[in-house]
Design brief:
There is one protein chain. This protein has about 300 residues and is an alpha/beta fold. It has one domain: TIM Barrel, CATH 3.20.20.150. The chain has helices at about 5-15, 50-60, 80-95, 115-120, 140-160, 180-185, 200-205, 210-220, 255-265, 290-310, and strands at about 30, 35, 40, 65-70, 95-100, 125-130, 165-170, 195-200, 225-230, 230-235, 240-245, 270. An 8-stranded parallel beta barrel has the order 3-4-5-6-7-8-9-12, surrounded by 5 helices. A two-stranded antiparallel sheet has the order 1-2. Strand 3, helix 2 (about 50-60) and strand 4 form a beta-alpha-beta unit. Helix 2 packs parallel to helix 3 and helix 2 packs across helix 10 (about 290-310). The longest helix is centred in the last third of the chain and has 23 residues, at about 290-310. The radius of gyration is 19 Å and the shape is globular.
Amino acid sequence: MKFSRRKFIKTTALTGAFLPFADAYSSESNMSRQGSKIYFFTKPLDKYETEFMAETLAMAGIDGFDLTVRRGGKVEPERVAEDLPGVVESGKKYNLATHLMVTGITGTEDKQTEAVLKTASALGVRHYRLGYYSYDYSEGVTKSLDNIKSRLMDLSAMNRHYKIQAGYQNHDGARFGAPLWDLWGLIKDMPVEAISSQYDIRHAIAEGYRSWIIALHLLSRNIGSIAIKDFSWQLDNGRARAIHVPLGEGVVDFNMFFKTRNELKIDVPISFHIEYPLLSQAEESLSLLEKQKIIVSKIKKEVQFIRDHETA
């Protein structure tokens, strides 16, 4: 299907489908009595069998997968129709939902984009992380923003058709979304049920150590998910380098973050990321059961950290 914004708007206006996703999130809030739904970004566990991954995350108190559906991920985009249903079913066996996924999608022109969104939506995925956009300095920052906005608007039409929400993760570095102001400027007038921010507190602080809270306030109505992880700074030959560490061992002010999130009533799923090695080099040679015990212990500790801070 060739997607164009003009054609989509004309069609939905006639059918009445140009309404917010009434059935996408209406059945339940993302906040349970115990706190927010916590989905695990599966990248660190992608190398294991799906059954092992699901059992491990269930034992650690995770609510569901933030599943990698991208090149090199748990599910390859070319095989989404064949492989994604099996992963979703494996999760269900352990009461894990697959409501979130991580993709490399940046536009509707890629032949895999529609197949991924159509399949994922039919299986209950309600939110996906987009791929990243870069500035083209040969064209200039303003022109780059115009090009990115056009691509997001095309994706917005496709997302509304398949009732799925895209989230753009802010990431430190010289790329679109790192300052967060540029992201807000492009998505502030787009329907949040189609295009949103995945507000990553770690990267927000890396780029704006004290100003991150302004961006959180600014984007609060446009946030579709939150990414949680921690980091510390390390000097390497006179240059600061970010080092991934367990939650609470770095520079992220989680007390202020969760306090502000609660005040702003940002009721969205949490994507919990672990970027540091789950196993040491020596532990990699242990049996699968011994590895699982170590991994479960580490993830469970971090899940409890989130629970303690979000309800404090």
